[in-house]
Each structure stands twice: as C-alpha cells, then as structure tokens.
UniProtKB/TrEMBL annotation:
Keywords: Membrane, Transmembrane, Transmembrane helix. The chain crosses the membrane at residues 41-61, 81-98. The keyword Transmembrane helix applies. It comes from the Bacteria. This is Conjugal transfer protein.
Length: 178
C-alpha cells in the first residue's frame, strides 16, 4: 500500500492517563457486577453494616431487605446532586456550614470593624426670649388690624424689599415695581 491510499489514524490516550472515578477495577479484573462508583461503595458498605447489625429486626421479612439494599446500590450508580458527585456536593455543604458568616476577603476571614466612640462635646443653650412687638426695630411698622401684614418703611414708600433672588435681580435692574 502506498502512502497516498492509507487512511489517517488518530489516537487519543487521554482516558488512559486519567484516574477513573470508579473503583473495583484492577488491571483486567473487575469486582463482580463492577466497577463501582464511590457512592455505590458507600451504600454497599453502609447497607451491609446496617443489615448485619439489625438482622433480628428484619429477619422475618426474608430476602426483601437484602434485595432492597442491592437495588439501592444499583440506583446510586449515576447519582448526581446539581451535576456533581454526591461526595463533592456533601463536602461543599459542609464547607458552607463551617465557613464564617461574614465570608472572606482576600483569603482572610472578614471581620467587622471595631467600634469607635465619639469623644466630642456639645452645649445646649436655652432659647432666646422673643422680642415684644413694642420693641420692634426702627423702620418696621406694626401689623395693621385690617391686613395683618407687617410692612417695612421701604415697602410703604413703594420700593420692594430685597427678599428673594428675583426681587434683588429686579431691584438691580431698576424695575422693582414689575
């Protein structure tokens, strides 16, 4: 066969380099009905322990508990919690439960700042007494009985007092009456 007619062959050895996430396979030998995932081995071992310790409770049921145990081992073969291995998910839950409630900042536990107390002083003075209407300053007329408005001498002569910014602007333009 010439080089031109030979088909190209591509091989990938990545899976051979990875440690498989299954146990119970050693070379060409595998455990019966295996290989098993770690979750299956936990159910297998834990279930066997519980069945042996509680034999007197379930012995009257015959092989039903043993069959249920073996079905549960088969059922957890592809168990995932939120797309993760159950052990990784349980480890994540334990990490979250043991973490400091304030969290971490820059790899360190976040702490609240220490309290600092205000050390200043302040004085409360009594309020000033109101000036009576008889002692009003010069140029301010007393309130008239008909209007009830206090007018100054400048307003009485026809010139508007500069109270607001618009009044000051109009007074500066020479149009205080507008």
């Amino acid at each position: 066969m010439s080089e031109e007619t030979r088909p190209g062959v591509a091989r990938s050895y990545t899976s051979a380099r990875r440690h498989p996430w299954v146990l119970g396979k050693l070379g060409d030998w595998t455990m019966p009905f295996g290989p098993y995932t770690p979750a299956q081995l936990v159910v297998l071992g834990g279930g066997a322990f519980v069945l042996i310790q509680t034999f007197s409770w379930w012995s009257w049921a015959g092989p039903v508990p043993v069959v249920a145990w073996l079905v549960s081992v088969w059922a957890v073969r592809g168990a995932q919690i939120a797309g993760q291995n159950p052990f990784t998910a349980i480890l994540g839950v334990l990490v979250v439960l043991t973490r400091h409630p304030a969290g971490r900042i820059g790899g360190r536990t976040a702490r609240d700042k220490q309290h600092s107390y205000f050390g200043g002083q302040f004085i409360i003075e009594p309020a000033r007494a109101a000036t009576p209407a008889a002692a009003a300053p010069a140029g301010v007329a007393a309130a008239g009985p008909a209007t009830g408005v206090v007018t100054s001498g400048a307003q009485a002569s026809g010139v508007r007092a500069a109270g607001s910014g618009l009044d000051r602007l109009l007074a500066g333009a020479g149009r205080a009456d507008a």
